[in-house]
Write a structure and sequence with these properties.
The protein has one domain. It contains 4 helices and 4 strands, in the order H-E-H-E-H-E-E-H. The radius of gyration is 15 Å and the shape is globular.
Length: about 120
Amino acid sequence: MKDAQKPDHISLNTLVRRMKEGRFVIPDFQREFEWRPWDIRDLMRSIFLDYYIGSLLLWKGKKESFEALSCEALYGYAGDGEPEHIVLDGQQRLTAMYYAFVAPDVKAPGRASMCFRSP
């Protein structure tokens, strides 16, 4: 495959910065963000213990692609970002990381309060 791309490796800091900038968008065919607070906690534990958490499948989009797929920002993102990538796989993990590292002023789905206290 002549045009096949090799996977990129980016730091956690770079990933979080790009999420803050609104570079990742979710197409309308993706399910909604469904993770519960303990799912987010478990992902954070895996990250800090340096466990493999899977890869992300991103499509470098264009304005036409973002519009055709009715893309929206990550759940909780409130800025006017400049979309760059359409998330095809990894939305739950990206959004969970966004919640953990950025702490948006939006309640997680199905939660009555803004935070989760671990027992």
